[in-house]
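Input sequence (103 aa), recorded before submission:
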Amino acid sequence: MQPRRKKPLDGMYLELAKAEMIIRLLVEGSSVATVERVTGVHHGTILKLPVLVGEKCERIMAEKIRNVEVRIPPSTQDAARQCRSVAKRLSWGASNPLAPKVR
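Predicted structure, token format:
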């Protein structure tokens, strides 16, 4: 007796080729309504598929990628700091005398 093969789409009743097409269309920027019309797959299934793919990718990354040091380049840190200062000014309003002075 052969061992049962794992289903790549868990419990979804969807052909793998059609699932690949759905993901490809979504990545290219097609709307859910367009994907539904092109593939004939219910929009609920289309919305569940990227979640499933993301969970599987996260699981693979957790298994394969270990002990990676993440360094943020200084230019990225400066850009983030500038974005935060602009957001603070916008949230307080530029003409508000009580607005904090942002460096």
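Checked by second reader. The longest helix spans residues 43-64.
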